[in-house]
Structures are given as structure tokens and as C-alpha cells.
Amino acid sequence: MSPAPPATPGAGKVPVGVLVSGRGSNLQALLDAAADPTFPAAITMVLANVPGAYALERAAAAGIATAVVPSKGVPREDFERALLHALGPVEWVCLAGFMRVLTPTFLGAFPGRVLNIHPALLPAFPGTHGARQALEGGVVQAGATVHLVDAGVDTGPILAQGTVAVHDDDTEATLAARILTLEHRLYPMALRWAAEGRITLEGRRARVALAPGESRWIVGE
Ligand code: GAR
Description:
The chain is an alpha/beta fold. Helix content is about 30%, strand content about 25%. It has six helices and ten strands. The chain has helices at about 25-35, 55-60, 75-85, 105, 130-135, 170-195, and strands at about 15-20, 40-50, 65-70, 90-95, 115-120, 140-150, 160-165, 200, 205-210, 215-220. The strands form two sheets. An eight-stranded mixed β-sheet has the order 3-2-1-4-5-6-7-10, sandwiched between helices. A two-stranded antiparallel sheet has the order 8-9. The chain binds glycinamide ribonucleotide (GAR).
């Protein structure tokens, strides 16, 4: 099946593709933000590597073009080339619960223009199960991070972080839920900065030209 053509972004909006693997609550946060006419980015394509991912339904409900680019059993380079082909003419890419590590085959097409959201205070607890790792690590503060993607696993320059306290009676599910609420606040904020060209890099350190009242650090409940 050939992918549907990307939607035309609103006038003056930066076209963004989103890669997903699962339920897509972060995609929903981005779609909700992008529905505001003053938001600088338009989501024009949502790609899932997992057939049937619920995120695809969220995108379709918002009228956004979608496609499935299967990764299972596909050589990594072929998969990434297929992703690039299906994405269409986007300027930024957001990974939103996309559970594949991308290589320079993909990243080279979007140098410094791929964002990821991760459910931990990086550089602690990269990989999967951020909340579980925080509980097992015995930390008293957990959180979420939006970062630029490099070829490592959750190692790219950090743009924004949010923190929540770890409660004595937290389970992985309760902690992950509070972290997820933070994620939904952080990701639209960082995408706005990206689309408005307010991010620069000094080595591995990202700088953001903040507007009055903005912060790169938020505190959750
Ligand atoms: C989110 O918690 C996201 O941070 C995490 O997967 C979840 C996806 O939820 N991503 C990673 O762990 C990437 N290393 P969602 O599909 O509802 O957005």
C-alpha cells in the first residue's frame, strides 16, 4: 500500500512528521497543540512501525495522513529509507513513543531536527521503562525529558525537562502516569521552540531563546 500524500500545512506553519509505535498520547498532545491557529507547526504525516497502533486512529481522527512502515523483520537500513520516503516534505520529526533506535541513515536527512520525548530525567535511565528504572534506582525525583536525537539511545542534547516527586506508595503505573502528564506539557512546548527556530547548539549543550515567562524546566504534581 502506498502512503497517503501528506496534508498541506497551514500557511506559514512548519510541517512536522511524527513517528509512533503505540497508544499515541504524546501524539495527541502535539495534535491538540497544533490545532491552535497560533501554533507554529503543523503535523502533516504520522507514521507507525507497528500495524494497528492506536496512535494511527488518533491521527486519522484529526484528519492527518498516516501510513504504516513495518519494521519487524526488515533490515534497519531498508526500514529507515522507507520511513524517509513515506514522510514527505517535513522539516522536523517528532518521535512520540517510537520504540526503534534510528541510525544516521535516517538522522542524516534531518540533522539536528529530530525530537524525542523520554520518561526519565536523562541522562539517568535511558532506554525503556523509565518509571520502573526510577523506582528500582531508588531516586526521590523522577521526570521526563525532550531532547534532540542523535545516534545514541536517549543521549542527544536536552531541550526541556520536567520533574515529579516519587511517592513512597508509588507503583510503576502511578509514577508513569504522573510522568506522562508532564510529557504532555513538555512536548508541545519544545516543538514550538523548534518550529520557531529558537534552538541552537553549543557542542552538546542546547540553548533555547526563551520568551518572557518560559522555562526549560517544569514541575509536575
Ligand atoms: C511515553 O512515555 C514516552 O515517553 C515513551 O513511551 C511512552 C509512549 O506513550 N518513550 C520512550 O520510552 C522512548 N525511549 P504514548 O504512545 O502514549 O505517547
